[in-house]
Amino acid sequence: SAVISQKPSRDICQRGTSLTIQCQVDSQVTMMFWYRQQPGQSLTLIATANQGSEATYESGFVIDKFPISRPNLTFSTLTVSNMSPEDSSIYLCSVEDPSGRINYGYTFGSGTRLTVV
Amino acid sequence: ELKVEQNPLFLSMQEGKNYTIYCNYSTTSDRLYWYRQDPGKSLESLFVLLSNGAVKQEGRLMASLDTKARLSTLHITAAVHDLSATYFCAATNAGNNRKLIWGLGTSLAVNP
Questions:
Q1: Tens digits of per-residue pLDDT, A28-82?
Q2: Closest Cα partner for A37 from A98, A99, A109, A117?
Q3: Contact A102 B31 (CB under 8 A)
Q4: Nearest by CB to A42, which of B31, B50, B88?
Q5: Is residue A116 classed as helix, strand or coil in its secondary structure?
Q6: How many CB atoms lie within 10 A of CB A103?
Q7: Segment 92-111 of chain A within 8 Å of chain B by CB
């Protein structure tokens, strides 16, 4: 299965600032998914990022607040902009198995634990 | 719209006991996933179930899928403390968008 390197693993940020989270995959993948997981909660999909096109955002998430870049098939960034304490959460990126072997499921990055003060 | 319901949400069990976690989904889905998450960690893929009647086993965990009932189960046999974690099921819409719809998770505590 794919291996994802996600950075940073955690950060404490001041309100009003922005943080960019990076995910690097060891294989080329068509779609990358960005999730938010609030403490003790399930995962909420923020957006799906395809290379060469604009990301597709889920209801409740907008590009101005969560801009995404996908410059190539192995890399993506998610920026959390103009942060408030309500943005404190774990952010995760995810990909399907690049070989198309569906039995492997989706692989997740190690997560970014964000605290906004 | 596909929705996924998981129960129970919290489960405390003794070592050596058996138990089942249930995952119901509301509309046709072509794939059902089970994941494990340890506190402060990312998600680990456990099982991918693709067809009606599919059964997969890994150690003390066994997952099954009944597409007619729109139900998947994760059965724990002779639980041990190391199985303490949160378990999520997720399903994808039949189609091409490959978006996972997640259950709320089952927080499992296995006590001595």
A1: 998 899 999 998 899 999 999 988 788 999 999 999 999 999 999 999 999 999 9
A2: A109
A3: yes
A4: B88
A5: strand
A6: 13
A7: 92, 96, 102-111
